[in-house]
Design goal:
678 residues, alpha+beta, Beta-galactosidase, Chain A, domain 5, Immunoglobulin-like, 11-stranded antiparallel β-sheet, 15 helices, 38 strands, 23% helix
C-alpha cells in the first residue's frame, strides 16, 4: 500500500478499508431491485428447458436440442460474501458434448453472472459448434414500450474516447464489437438498458473479440452476446468457454442511479483488493523511455529533493536490450535488463526507490515477441503469426507449456528485481494472428484458448504474488473488460494524454478538454483509473486529475516546481472522492464554449467534491449546478480549493436550486470540496 498523505484522517480511512462495501449494500439496494433480479434468476437463468446461453450444433439451434439432452439436477453451492453458485449441466447422449453453465447469484446486490463451458466428453471429435452466445435472452417486462441503450465509446486514443453514447431501441437492432481483438479498443462491453424508471446493466467479460446485439421483441429487449466468431469442432477432452456475462437490475430512479449502483457492486465484488483493501489513490513519477540505472536514480533525487512524497517510481518500456527503440527490440521476448545500462539489474533502481519510501512499477509486454529474442529463437512452436508482420509474433498463451514458462519466468523476475506493481501492456491487435492459425473447422478456437490462457497467466502471477497490484494497459485503454478489471486496474486510461506536447508545442484544446471527457465518461463505469499529466498549468493538470496520477513538471531544464507541488496538493485534496457516487452536472460536450462539470459524493461520509471547467471560448462567467445525492435536511459547507472561501447551504436548496459558481476568465478549472456541517 502507498504511504501518500491523505485528506482523510488516518483512522477514518482505516474504517473505509476494513469495512467491505458489501456490508454497506443495504444502503444502496431497494427491495424492488432485488425482487426483479430474483424473478429473473428463477424464471430464466435456472430454466433447464431453455438455457440463458445458446449455440448451434451440427446445424441445429441449441434451443431445439437441450430439452431432449440428459440433465443433471442443479448443483447449489454457498460461497463467501453472501453469494450462491448454481451449476446446470446438459449432455448430448449421442456425441458426449457437455454444456455446463456456472452462475453466481449475489445475495447483497441485484446482480447475477454466469459463464458457460462446452466440453467434448465423447470418444471422437464433435460436429461443428457455432454461433456460441454467452447470453441469448429477453430482458424487460410487458408494458415497457420505450428503451434507451446507453454505453460509452471505447478507447480510440482521441478526445472522443469514453464519450457517452445512447441509442433508441426500436425495430432496428444495435450491434457492437471492438477492433482487432482487444475488448475495449473502439467499443465498450458494458451497457445500460434504460426503461425510464428501471433498467438492466449488461457486462460482457471477454478479453478478446466479442459481439453484442440488442433488439426489440414486442415489449421486451433481446440480448445476444458472445465471442464474435465460433465455427469449430472440439477434440476429445477439449473445452471452450463463453464470455462472463453479468447483469445488474436497477429501479426507482434515472439511469444515473443505475450507474451508481453498478459502481457500488463493482467496488464490493470486482475491483482487486491487494492486501484486503481497495487500491489506494496513488501518485507516480516516470523518467520516460531513455533509461539507465544512474539516470533513474538521479531522476528520483531530482523530484524528491523538492520535499514531496511520491508513492510509486514507474519504469516504462525500454529497460531491456534494444538497438532501435522500445518497440523494435530483441529484449521484447527475452525480458532481461540491458547489461550496459543496468549492470546490476533493475534491482538497483527498485532498491533505491524503496530506500526513498516509494514502491516500484515495471513495464512488460509479454504477449508480443520480437525477432531475435530468446523466445523467438528457442520456442518458435509457441508463436502465433500474422500474415503481414515479419518482425513480431504473438506468444500463444493458449499453449499450456508457453503459459507455464512465461508465468514462472515473469514471477521470478518480479521477485528477483523487487517489482511491487506489475504493468502489462499490449500494443498489437491479436485478432488476425488468432484467425491466421485457425483451420476452416476450428474458427475461433485459437482465440478461445488464448483468452483462457491470458486469464490463467494473471491468476498464476497473483497466486504467487497475492498482494501485488496489476496495471492493465493495452496501448492505453484497449483491454478493460470485466474479466480483466477483476484482476487489474487501468493506470493509463488512454494514450491520448498529451501527444507531441512540449513547452514549445503546448497541448491543443482537444487534449485537455478531451481528458475532461475521459473522466466524464469512464467514471460512469470504473471507479479507479489513472493517467499522466504533461503540462504545468492548472487547467490542463486538473483536466487530467483522477485517482492514480502520473505527475511531474513538463520542462526539467527550467522546472516549474510550484506547478508540480500544485499537482500533488490537488491530488491529495480530492483523490479519495473518486470512490464516491458519480453525477454528471452538465451534458457531455466536446465544444470549447461551454461549462463541463461533475460531482462525486460519499453519502455515508457526508462529503464530496465538484469539478467545474469554464472552457477556453466560454463567455459565460457563471454557471448554476444542481447537485445530487445529498441529504435534504443536512447543511453542507463548500470550500474553494484555490481561495479557501466557504459557503453553506442545505441539501434541499443545493438539489433544488443548485449552487452558483463563477470563473473570472475562460480556461479556469474550479474544485470545491464539501462536507456536512453542524
Amino acid at each position: 500500500m502507498s504511504h501518500m498523505r491523505l485528506s482523510l484522517p488516518i483512522a477514518l480511512w482505516a474504517i473505509i478499508q476494513v469495512t467491505s462495501p458489501s456490508a454497506l449494500a443495504d444502503q444502496w439496494v431497494t427491495p424492488d431491485e432485488m425482487k426483479a433480479k430474483e424473478q429473473w434468476v428463477q424464471q430464466t437463468l435456472l430454466s433447464l428447458d431453455r438455457p440463458v446461453m445458446s449455440f448451434c450444433y451440427n446445424g441445429t439451434p441449441s434451443a431445439r436440442l437441450l430439452a431432449g439432452w440428459q440433465k443433471r439436477p442443479i448443483e447449489i453451492q454457498h460461497l463467501p460474501d453472501d453469494r450462491t453458485q448454481y451449476t446446470m449441466t446438459w449432455t448430448d447422449p449421442a456425441t458426449g458434448l457437455e454444456v455446463r453453465v456456472v452462475a453466481v447469484d449475489y445475495g447483497d446486490y441485484p446482480a447475477v453472472e454466469w459463464t458457460a463451458y462446452l466440453n467434448d466428453k465423447g470418444p471422437t471429435a464433435t460436429p461443428i459448434i457455432e454461433q456460441v452466445r454467452g447470453i441469448d435472452s429477453i430482458l424487460g417486462n410487458r408494458g415497457q414500450k420505450d428503451a434507451i441503450l446507453r454505453t460509452t465509446q471505447g478507447d480510440i486514443t482521441t478526445a472522443k474516447s469514453y464519450e457517452p453514447l445512447e441509442f433508441k431501441l426500436d425495430d432496428q437492432a444495435q450491434s457492437f464489437e471492438p477492433n482487432g481483438g482487444r475488448p475495449t479498443n473502439g467499443a465498450w462491453p458494458y451497457f445500460n438498458i434504460d426503461f425510464g424508471r428501471s433498467g438492466v446493466i449488461v457486462a460482457v467479460g471477454w478479453p478478446g473479440q466479442w459481439q453484442a446485439q440488442f433488439s426489440r421483441e414486442a415489449h421486451s429487449i433481446s440480448v445476444r452476446a458472445g465471442q464474435e466468431t465460433t465455427h469449430l469442432k472440439l477434440e476429445p477432452g477439449e473445452e471452450i468457454r463463453t464470455p462472463l456475462t453479468a447483469l445488474l437490475f436497477w429501479s426507482g430512479g434515472d439511469w444515473i442511479a443505475g450507474q451508481n449502483l453498478w459502481r457500488h457492486w463493482f467496488l464490493a465484488h470486482n475491483i482487486p483488493r491487494p492486501g484486503g483493501g481497495l487500491p489506494r489513490p496513488m501518485t507516480s513519477i516516470c523518467m520516460g523511455l531513455h533509461q539507465s540505472a544512474a539516470g533513474e536514480k538521479g531522476f528520483i533525487d531530482t523530484y524528491l529533493n523538492q520535499g514531496e512524497k511520491i508513492d510509486y517510481w514507474w519504469m516504462d518500456a525500454g529497460w531491456y536490450e534494444t538497438k532501435k527503440d522500445w518497440f523494435s527490440a530483441t529484449g521484447v521476448g527475452t525480458w532481461k535488463p540491458d547489461p550496459v545500462r543496468f549492470p546490476h539489474g533493475i534491482r538497483e533502481v527498485s532498491d533505491y526507490a524503496h530506500s526513498k519510501g516509494m514502491k516500484f512499477v515495471l513495464w512488460f509486454e509479454p504477449e508480443r515477441v520480437y525477432r531475435g529474442s530468446f523466445i523467438w529463437d528457442n520456442h518458435p512452436d509457441w508463436l502465433l503469426k500474422w500474415k503481414d508482420k515479419d518482425d513480431i509474433c504473438l506468444l500463444n498463451l493458449g499453449n499450456p507449456e508457453a503459459r507455464r514458462w512465461i508465468t514462472d519466468y515473469i514471477s521470478q523476475f518480479i521477485t528477483d528485481q523487487g517489482v511491487d506493481l506489475y504493468r502489462q501492456d499490449f500494443n498489437v491487435n491479436p485478432l488476425k494472428a488468432w484467425q491466421n492459425t485457425d483451420t476452416v473447422d476450428r474458427q475461433g478456437m485459437t482465440e478461445n484458448l488464448y483468452v483462457q490462457g491470458y486469464l490463467a497467466y494473471w491468476d498464476g502471477l497473483l497466486r504467487q504474488h497475492p498482494g501485488m497490484l496489476i496495471d492493465s494497459c493495452s496501448g492505453g485503454g484497449g483491454r478493460n473488460d470485466l474479466e480483466t478489471l477483476r484482476r487489474s486496474v487501468p493506470l493509463l486510461r488512454s494514450d491520448f494524454q498529451a501527444p507531441n506536447s512540449s513547452p514549445a508545442n503546448p497541448m491543443p484544446a482537444d487534449v485537455f478538454d478531451g481528458n475532461q471527457g475521459h473522466t466524464y465518461g469512464l467514471s460512469l463505469w470504473v471507479p479507479y483509473f489513472g493517467t499522466g499529466v504533461y503540462a504545468d498549468d492548472v487547467y490542463s493538470a486538473r483536466s487530467h486529475l483522477c485517482p492514480a496520477m502520473g505527475v511531474g513538471t513538463q520542462d526539467l531544464e527550467n522546472p516549474n516546481w510550484a506547478a508540480f507541488r500544485r499537482q500533488i496538493s490537488d491530488h491529495r485534496a480530492v483523490a479519495d472522492y473518486f470512490y464516491g457516487d458519480y453525477y454528471p452536472l452538465t451534458p457531455y460536450s466536446k465544444a470549447t464554449d461551454v461549462w463541463m462539470a461533475w460531482e462525486f459524493v460519499r453519502p455515508d461520509l457526508g462529503d464530496g467534491m465538484i469539478q467545474a471547467f469554464r472552457r477556453e471560448l466560454n463567455m459565460n462567467v457563471e454557471v448554476r449546478l444542481k447537485l445530487h445525492g445529498l441529504k435534504p435536511e443536512a447543511n453542507y459547507e463548500f470550500t474553494d480549493l484555490d481561495t479557501s472561501k466557504t459557503v453553506k447551504a442545505t441539501g434541499d436548496a443545493l438539489m433544488t436550486d443548485g449552487i452558483k459558481l463563477a470563473a473570472a476568465s475562460p480556461r479556469t478549472a474550479l474544485i470545491l470540496t464539501f462536507k456536512e456541517a453542524p
